[in-house]
Amino acid sequence: MASSSLVVPLVLWNRLPSSPVTTVVYKEGHVATGLKDGFIWIYRCIVDEQGVLQLQHKVLCIGHKSAITALTITEGQTDGCVGNNYVLISASEDGEVMKWCLLDGRCLVCIPKAFDGMIRSIKPLATCAETPKFLLCSGFADEITILNSSSLEIVRVWAGHNDWVACTPFYDSDARQIKLLSSNFNGFLKIWAFDEIKQTIIKEYDNVGILQAQGDKILELINNPYDIGVIMAITNNFIIIFTIRRGKMHNMQSIRILKNGAFWTSGAFLTKNMILVCTQAGDAHLYSITCTPRKYPSENGHLPMNPGFIPRRSSLPDLKKTNKEKLSIPGHAKPKLVESIYSSNNEFLDLTKIIVFATPSVEGKTSRWYMISFRNQLEGTSFSWKLLSTTAQEYPICERHVQESSWGSETYLSDIWPLRNYQSPKITVITMVNDDQIAFGYENGEICIMPISTALTMDSQDTSSLNTIKTLKGHFGKITCMYTPSFTHSDHKHFVSGGEDCSVRIWSLENGKRLTSFTYHSMPVTHLFEPPAETCGRTRGCIISIAKDNSLSIISLDEMSCLYNFGGYSHHICKIQWRIPENLLLLYYGDESTHIWQTNTSELYQIVKGSTAREMIVDKAWQTSTVSPHDSLSYANNKVKALSSINLQNNGVSDCQIFMINVKQLINDIYHYHVSQIGSRVNTPVVNTEDFDEKPDKLSKIFSWSTNGASQQCITSSSPSISETETQAIDASSVQILVSALMTWGVDNSLDRVCSEKLGLKKPSNQISFGLRGFNGNLSVAAPSNDHREFWKISQTMTAAHLLSIVGLTRPFLLMKGLEKYTSDIITHYGTMLPEFVGTKFHHSSLAFLSKYFQDPAEDIRHSARTLFSAALTSMPPIELQSIIDYWKQFLPAVTSQDVYAQQYMAKSTILLGMIGADHPKFLSKKVSENTALSLILILHEDPKLAHRLAALELCGKGFSTWEPYFDAVAVVKTILGLAIDSDTNVAALKAMAQKAIFQIASVNTPLCISTLTYDTNNSKKPAEKNGFLKLISLFIRKKPLVLYSSLSSLVEAVVKSLDPNIAKMRDTVLQTTTNVLHDLVKTFPSIAFHGATQKLAVGTQEGASIIYDLRTATRCHILEGHTRAVTAVTFSGDGKIIVSCSLEEGTVRVWNPSPGLFGMLAGSLTNGNNSKSEGKKFKPLSTSTKPCKTFRFNLGDDARLPVPSILNTVYFEWTVERTVKLHVENSIMSFNI
């Protein structure tokens, strides 16, 4: 059965990942900056009571492989939680587009090639105040791509332009809908209409106008969200403002650049009459646009408004009353310069990025306008902020002198980094040596190898007093790469390093001594890795080193010599193909050329280019290694499945090491390798991962393969150096330190003492933080913090993932340590008390995240997810819970179609709301409960995923009392019964869950469940089906006997009928099963007795009668009437001629001596006849009624008022001699002489 993965990134920070800022956006207290290396930083933007602005590092988004070129923030909830209403859309230089959660940076969706060119602008396309459904991507290309804002799928490629094109949506007041305005570089304007249903583009106006920019290229078009049809165009030397009305351009006005050598880079509308424009140097200028009234058609008095593009009605003229619109300035007026903010720092590397935003006051009105600028300098990126003057914010603008000011003092981003006081030698490389050791390479040429526990619990550079650390010295200049070989012919364990001194050095891991060194390169070494294990000849057991000049050496670890050395080239090596049997080595370079080297002579044999080179290198007959040209990410190869690592590098310096903890695999390893050895538990299986809404991890192969930028690709195996049989157990000490790192320290002193003194855990270093793995394995990691409370204030999903990891690991870890008694302390702390310790900004767990693990096959994860889900429900503020319900109810299958929303959202919403309704029905309205109930049935019948059907089954049973009023309960019970008896081995899990569900339903509505089971058993025509029902009855008897107690008579009737001799085929098929059922009935219930010699079965009923069946004929032969209350117990005498019954409620024991009589004797002959017509007809039992021959009365008082469990366990008859029977009732024994 598939399940959701649970991989938690654990980050060991070295320094701030710094790269030039390429683009910046702001929304709701968050600033997001795109970086040149492809990363994205999300900052908290805080304005204190004094109006001082502060930035705080929050999360780093890791996924793009090239520079970020565009960012935008749009509405779009990710899990329905309050405050989680926005998503960040990013585009990189290679055309890749990704969507991230703004709160925690979790990657939601990505599309590798969304644009054929470089995206410079992403704009939401929305209508009528709805959440944007589409995105417009434009840039350095002659086409525009329209994407689905939810899935990022390409909806339309809008091509056919004769030049690079810019585009913006705007509201067409005449057509009352959103239109698209495009301009090529030469300023030719066109208007287009986009049909959302047909997803087609239609040109409506071809000659809208030409923007006069004196030869400048049109770089961007920006729509005024506060005024209808007003557009801003940006060129290097001009800001052009114009109005679109009835397909034509009006009132074009321009603002020329104010300084020689400067050029415009960006602009924004602050209000309907205020604009802010900026230059590349960081100068910002505020202009006022004077509006003049104009007659407006009365039929347009009720315009649909879109907050993204059209202003709120309060910011527009009252069209109802005046029938006027305010249009842009007439031709004789010009924009008025109000304020200028100049930059005093002219030392910058590239364009200064500026954003402007308003902070709302308590009443919700705009109170202050802030600007933030980011400037890339030699020392790093700095930022400064500026509060616009009060005069500039007043409306209307009066005649005043232009106010001039300068930006505030600059602050480097490194100065607000939480670890800014961390002084130590710079770490340039971090890599995993083996499963419990890590190596740090330094700028001074030293290498320190230490246990992971040491690295995670102390400052990794403070090595003075630790004897567990090996220090390797020998390189001159910084360490550039390190590698631990996985295969050698010798027994020695080696460690290989490369440095800025162009040397490759080989060390002994046992004693840390240098074995040898090689200097065959003339530039720093950049890559170290092994050839594929399947290669033969001398290359086995070798190390490949690549230098910055793309020269390559092959070094034998067995011979301690350099076997081959191949010269450099101007382009980087992309692939290496190993044709050792032919004495050839093929090097494929970035210019699409293949160099063929002869290994026996080390001579360049031939250079092939173009398609021939590409065809040669993709030949699958030979092993191939892939070399990554990027050094920002490198992946370490671990034999322990539960732990892998990634190293972030920038400019040859390591930023951080990310340990990927596979929590479910770690739990499995704990049980298998540690707990099972002390007999506590057997291995818990962990299956392949497949999420409800999470695609398979495309980076998983890279994680397993790559080291320091080189990845090996092999035809026969996904990993040449690590096979399934070579995987190892994680060391117990490593488990302990990983659990230590996941725990939250410093919020509860009593728990800290328990963890440190009782459990042996160690407080981790402040360099440790956590993260999330999102779509396609892309990561978001939290910035480090000196206060662990901050990690619980990031987002609901971050809280849920962190909590699930801690609580899920608690029980197996404590079992491993033999300290199970502390389990409840830890779970109580994290499950219920944590919000109190963290404070008001605590983010409660995401219910959507936890619901993914509702049917997880890993028991600890499944139970932890359910516990945390219930805890979050009870502690979550009502407004937040209602927001979640309102968000997810729209995806229920009962109210939407699969064409609108993906099936995974439909299933997820059903499971989430089903979990809420099953445990807390009061939280759901009647309508939501009804739709959830119907959706559960749809999922049960139609969903192809087993995990979804299992969840629907369990929720149908668990919440039956909630859903019963809203669906056909009988039909649902029949469906579940059908699944519960299914003999198909492929759905064994479904059968087991259906049985569990039917037990739960029987506990809620016993009459409905048992009557339906009895009816279906009676009326089943197929032997296999009837056999299944009988087995289910047997299961009820063994597991839920109390449920059957009140319905025993009808149930036994159905069981006996299955032995009808007139239906021989049916009887033969079910005979063994029926025998087992009858055995279980007699053994379990004192009101049922069987006499083997006569094949008679006696059943006492709740009405006071006892029915005697002849199992040979499957008929009633006697009905013993005499008791006025329920019969508690019955028994046969040894010869079967006498029957004794007891009713505790009545206080009597009655003795029966039934004789068949003429009617009874005729019954057997009538039913045993060979009348073929009787087969399949409705069963009509033949019987006689008999009165008791003797009655005994007794009085046990209150002792006779026994609950059903006590009756089943303590009441029975015992025959002592032929005519004496004893009745046992708990501790009382009564003897009767009959």
UniProtKB/TrEMBL annotation:
GO terms for cellular component: cytoplasm. Gene3D superfamilies: YVTN repeat-like/Quinoprotein amine dehydrogenase. WD repeats lie at residues 489-517, 1120-1153. PROSITE patterns: WD_REPEATS_2. It holds the Pfam family WD40. Keywords: WD repeat. It comes from the Eukaryota. SMART domains: WD40 (SM00320). PANTHER family: RABCONNECTIN-3B, ISOFORM A. This is WD40 repeat-like protein. It comes from Gigaspora margarita.
